[in-house]
Design brief:
Blueprint (H helix, E strand, L loop, with lengths): L9 E10 L6 E11 L4 E5 L6 H9 L6 E5 L14 E4 L11 H11 L4 H14 L15 H13 L5 E5 L7 H18 L2 E6 L2 H4 L4 E6 L2 E2 L5 H4 L3
Parallel strand pairs: 3-7, 3-8, 5-6, 6-7
Antiparallel strand pairs: 1-2, 1-4, 8-9
Helix pairs in contact: 2-3, 2-4, 3-4, 4-5
Length: 232
């Protein structure tokens, strides 16, 4: 089936990112052409410093390409990405220490203009969906690292996203907790009907997603079947 522009959640056309100028310039991402369509499940693999985070930040609208363009045909303009259509989950859960779990999940919605009551209602629903309701009144210091990362997924899910971008979401977790977080991400994406892109250098995480993209030294290679991606 041919993908039309309205079916494309994010489109990178020759998008590249360089930091610094002159002799001190660092090319973080070579000119890149790629797209994410609804319900895609993509593992973006590569070693640390290969450009995975840079590409995800461009897709999320958190950074600007030095050259080329990034657009969101099926979503809208950049200023409409968050909270809501595009959710970003980082390596660390980034929970605010003075706020309860429920307040942390509700905060992006409130900052985005939602009233307190519907924001907290959406937060409680997202926590319940991920079986975290019992943590709602706890502070971040009172929960485990694995629980905190699952709360970060709930925070993303509360905005009912069309696209979930997870940047090394298991990087600070042990194998068991990492597997739980991947389970939660896949279930959350399925529930929301959202596309999911997970950057990782862990083969056991990438094995959970059907499509594998490789990036090395800032250059994204052609997408390939998983068996070929791990054959080297």
């Amino acid at each position: 089936m041919t993908t039309t522009s309205v079916d494309v959640l994010v489109l990178c056309e020759g998008a590249a990112r360089t930091y610094g100028d002159g002799s001190t310039a660092t090319v973080a991402l070579q000119p890149t052409d790629c797209l994410i369509a609804p319900r895609d499940r993509v593992a973006l693999i590569g070693p640390s410093g290969s450009g995975k985070s840079t590409l995800l930040h461009l897709m999320a609208g958190l950074d600007d390409p030095t050259v080329g363009t990034v657009s969101w045909p099926g979503i809208g303009q950049r200023d409409s990405l968050r909270p809501g259509p595009v959710a970003v989950i980082f390596q660390g859960p980034s929970l605010l220490a003075p706020l309860t779990v429920e307040e942390n999940v509700a905060l992006p919605l409130i900052l985005g203009g939602s009233a307190d009551r519907p924001a907290h209602s959406a937060a409680r629903e997202a926590l319940a969906r991920l079986e975290l309701a019992e943590l709602a009144d706890k502070l971040p210091e009172e929960i485990s690292g694995g629980q905190a990362q699952r709360v970060a997924v709930a925070r993303a899910l509360a905005g009912e996203p069309s696209l979930i971008l997870a940047d090394e979401p298991t990087g600070q977790l042990d194998r068991a907790n990492g597997a739980i977080v991947v389970d939660v991400l896949l279930a959350a994406a399925a529930h929301a009907g959202a596309a999911l892109v997970v950057s990782t250098h862990d083969p056991t995480v990438a094995e959970r997603l059907p499509d594998v993209w490789e990036i090395h030294s800032g250059r994204l290679t052609t997408t390939r079947p998983k068996e070929a991606a791990w054959s080297r």
